[in-house]
Design a protein that fits this description.
Blueprint (H helix, E strand, L loop, with lengths): L13 H5 L17 H9 L2 E8 L4 E6 L4 E6 L6 E7 L2 E5 L2 H8 L8 E3 L7 E8 L12 E4 L7 H8 L7 H13 L3 H4 L7 E9 L6 E4 L8 E6 L3 E7 L19 E7 L23
Antiparallel strand pairs: 1-13, 2-12, 3-11, 3-13, 4-5, 4-9, 4-12, 6-7, 7-11, 8-9, 9-10
Length: 287
């Protein structure tokens, strides 16, 4: 598959048009910048307040109070995870991967923020530590902690493979939200949203622009830490693709558990921090 239509002759100025320099869509210089030194000082004195192990090919939930830290760690073997985040008091406010991608890029690391859906559009978590921050962008254009992909799901599986698979990340997250809230599966499913693909290594091919995955560089002990800017309900699925080096939605790929921990800073830390207010746009929409 190519992105060039061979039936068309390029115009005489084709290379000039292709050669136009790109412009960043959303310059972020005016965004409020997180005080990483403040967050790291709070992290230094933090103690574990709760934890849950996410079994392979399944999902679990955990509550993360505002001002606490969510640590996601690889244990036992290379494994990627699909993360959903909600305002714990209002499920309509949830992680917005598309806007996070538009603001910070296709992958996130230390200093980047995870933004919530309209109309609140505010930072709900800040990445304060990333043990894979050394990876950068590889020769294939791949990088780690993806906000490109959606999540493996039974609908696409049925479309492409013709069979039903019930332990993909979409279904795992649906069950986890039902468990967390007491909802039925039917009521929980519409709340499941595009994810942060924790530890997943992905990119786009240069020739066809297709989304690719490759074996994650994650190893046991690797972790990412998110500072909760608001009270969060976190759902994490240990993807049935394992390290996503060959396939996902699979019962044959080697899979491993993931650990979620909530870390509580010492009382009063971080000093001077307050939870971000919802976006102040007046919602008049020109009327």
């Amino acid at each position: 598959m190519t992105r060039i239509d061979p039936t068309l002759s390029p115009p005489p100025d084709a290379e000039t048009r292709r050669g136009v320099a790109p412009v960043i869509c959303y310059p972020t210089e005016t965004l409020p910048q997180p005080d990483l030194a403040l967050y790291r000082a709070a992290r230094a004195g933090a103690r574990r307040a709760g934890s849950v192990t996410v079994p392979p090919r399944d999902a679990r939930h955990i509550h993360v109070p505002a001002g606490h830290i969510l640590r996601i760690e690889s244990v036992e073997g290379p494994q990627v995870g699909d993360l959903n985040l909600f305002n714990a008091a209002d499920l309509s406010e949830r992680f917005y991967s598309g806007k996070t991608r538009a603001l910070h890029g296709t992958h996130v690391t230390t200093g980047d923020r995870l933004w919530s859906s309209f109309p609140t559009l505010r930072p709900i978590a800040t990445v304060i530590a990333d043990s894979l921050g050394w990876y950068g962008i590889d020769a294939y254009g791949g990088s780690v902690h993806d906000v490109i992909g959606t999540r493996c799901d039974p609908y696409t599986g049925r479309l492409l493979g013709g069979s039903d698979y019930h332990h993909c990340c979409h279904s795992n997250l649906t069950r986890a939200l039902a468990d967390a809230t007491g909802m039925t599966l039917a009521k929980a499913e519409p709340h499941i949203h595009d994810v942060l693909n924790v530890f997943m290594c992905t990119g786009f091919t240069r020739d066809t622009g297709q989304y690719f995955m490759k074996a994650s560089p994650v190893r046991p002990g690797d972790h990412i830490e998110l500072f909760a800017e608001i009270d969060l309900l976190a759902l994490l699925s240990a993807c049935p693709g394992g390290d996503c080096g060959s396939e996902h939605s699979s019962d044959t790929a080697p899979c491993h558990p993931l650990l979620m921990e909530v870390l509580a800073p010492e009382e009063g830390a971080p000093a001077g921090w307050t939870s971000p207010e919802p976006n102040p746009y007046d919602r008049s929409h020109g009327r």
